[in-house]
Amino acid sequence: MKFLGSSEKAIDDSSPERDEAAIHGTPLEDHQKSRWERSWPTIACGAGLFSDGYLNGVIGQVNTILKALYKKQYSNSPAQSNVNSIAFAGTVVGQLFFGWMSDHVSRKWALMTSTVILFIFAALSAGSYGGGSINGMLQALTAWRFLLGIGIGGEYPAGSVACAESTGELKEGHRNRWFIMFTNVQIDIGFVASSFVPMIVVLACTDNHLRAAWRICLGLGVIPPLSLIYLRLKLQEPEEFNRETMKNTHTPWWLVIKFYWARLLVVSMIWFIYDFLTYSFSIYSSAWLLVILGDSAPIWKSFGWDTVINLFYLPGAIGGAFLSDILGPRLALGSFVLAQGIVGFIMSGCYPYLDKSSTVGGFVVVYGIFLSLGEAGPGDNIGLVASKTSATAIRGQYYAIAAAMGKIGAFVGTYVFPVIQNNAPGGADSNRGGQDPFFVSSALCIFSAGLAFFLLPHIGQDTITSEDLKFRAYLEDNGWDTRQMGTKEYQMNSSSTVDEIGQSAGEKV
């Protein structure tokens, strides 16, 4: 069963008005470009997500340093939770705003704007002052983190959508892997750096200079977006965007909603569940770190173990990138999240034997497999699914809504999981306190696999182009004039091409 939208009609692929060449002329992959000319837009659009991984992850290490520095004054302050969570709120705002901007203004300038925001507010976060008082400094850091979150959110619809569209010019059979390599894999590498870099900084500064250490860790976050500004300034709009945009006309929202609401709901639910589990399961890494290290270990050691935990994401993310091309995103997502659910049930059953200092190595290995499967499945493929299951004209907003639902899932999960633990028989510190969240998460993994297998459409190598053709056909069948689509320059060139074709046909007659 393929859930293709409640209003979608069957399309006759042999019909000339549905054929890509008849509508657009030269297919994307046939454009005369060198390998580098085809590849670097994908790199420039997607690589900014490394910044997001680093800037999202490093605040956890900064939070640890601030606790060590200011102890009860920080621990008893609302700033402790606000500094960690406020970027979530900013990210949702940024995703929704930049999703609209990338569709109605420009992919390129949405990317440039989010890059500049990342650079400015990463620097301001590192320099948080607040009048000289500790509370003022923490309030300033909270404010800058919210605004930084807007830039982080902008990278998702602006960068990922443009990256997906740019892969249409790459070699068929390799498109999914390169999208994943410069989106999800970049985020995961950023997470590894967000724990490894603070470990090096704290070792260099020593525990006597932690006030400098946390500012250096945040300040280094300006380097990745700064390194991308030139590449992104040289970008051109993706060719598919030039062909299909509705920015110069009114968007037929009622037709869009009828065509895509059901599919968007499914994609959003899968993303909600993925982030709900991914962010919430950080409680387990903290639990076994306490078993390994105890309360008196130096800060750099905890950062080193955090690096080990984050490294578990990479094998699944990198291997899953290639499997996404082989299996297809729908099957890869469903298969690996199903396997993750099975491993989760095993962990839940074995938890009483794994939650001991003598067997913590076994816990780490099984937990690492659990994390890797999540990255190979929804981690790699949910952004790809969100990027390629809608038409180019509304892709930024479609993607933004699904990604925002993911962040809401992360926010909800961080509150729900402790409730599950605390209400387990025996409380959070009992075996049931460790088992019950795994029961819940594993059941959600199985549910997510069902959504993927039965309700997601097939996503092939040319899905972006074919989806645009289906959407055009749907609009035409409902009386909407698709000649309004495309940039003004594209419309002029398209008219010239049509005239040339008509003249050539007349000569032949």
UniProtKB/TrEMBL annotation:
<feature type="compositionally biased region" description="Basic and acidic residues">
    <location>
        <begin position="9"/>
        <end position="34"/>
    </location>
</feature>
<feature type="region of interest" description="Disordered">
    <location>
        <begin position="487"/>
        <end position="509"/>
    </location>
</feature>
<feature type="transmembrane region" description="Helical">
    <location>
        <begin position="307"/>
        <end position="324"/>
    </location>
</feature>
<comment type="similarity">
    <text>Belongs to the major facilitator superfamily. Sugar transporter (TC 2.A.1.1) family.</text>
</comment>
<keyword id="KW-0812">Transmembrane</keyword>
<feature type="domain" description="Major facilitator superfamily (MFS) profile">
    <location>
        <begin position="41"/>
        <end position="460"/>
    </location>
</feature>
<keyword id="KW-0813">Transport</keyword>
<dbReference type="GO" id="GO:0005886">
    <property type="term" value="C:plasma membrane"/>
</dbReference>
<feature type="transmembrane region" description="Helical">
    <location>
        <begin position="178"/>
        <end position="205"/>
    </location>
</feature>
<feature type="transmembrane region" description="Helical">
    <location>
        <begin position="360"/>
        <end position="377"/>
    </location>
</feature>
<feature type="transmembrane region" description="Helical">
    <location>
        <begin position="253"/>
        <end position="274"/>
    </location>
</feature>
<feature type="transmembrane region" description="Helical">
    <location>
        <begin position="331"/>
        <end position="354"/>
    </location>
</feature>
<dbReference type="GO" id="GO:0046943">
    <property type="term" value="F:carboxylic acid transmembrane transporter activity"/>
</dbReference>
<keyword id="KW-0472">Membrane</keyword>
<protein>
    <recommendedName>
        <fullName>Major facilitator superfamily (MFS) profile domain-containing protein</fullName>
    </recommendedName>
</protein>
<dbReference type="InterPro" id="IPR020846">
    <property type="entry name" value="MFS_dom"/>
</dbReference>
<keyword id="KW-1133">Transmembrane helix</keyword>
<dbReference type="InterPro" id="IPR036259">
    <property type="entry name" value="MFS_trans_sf"/>
</dbReference>
<feature type="transmembrane region" description="Helical">
    <location>
        <begin position="438"/>
        <end position="456"/>
    </location>
</feature>
<feature type="transmembrane region" description="Helical">
    <location>
        <begin position="398"/>
        <end position="418"/>
    </location>
</feature>
<feature type="transmembrane region" description="Helical">
    <location>
        <begin position="109"/>
        <end position="129"/>
    </location>
</feature>
<dbReference type="Pfam" id="PF00083">
    <property type="entry name" value="Sugar_tr"/>
</dbReference>
<feature type="region of interest" description="Disordered">
    <location>
        <begin position="1"/>
        <end position="34"/>
    </location>
</feature>
<feature type="transmembrane region" description="Helical">
    <location>
        <begin position="212"/>
        <end position="233"/>
    </location>
</feature>
<dbReference type="InterPro" id="IPR005828">
    <property type="entry name" value="MFS_sugar_transport-like"/>
</dbReference>
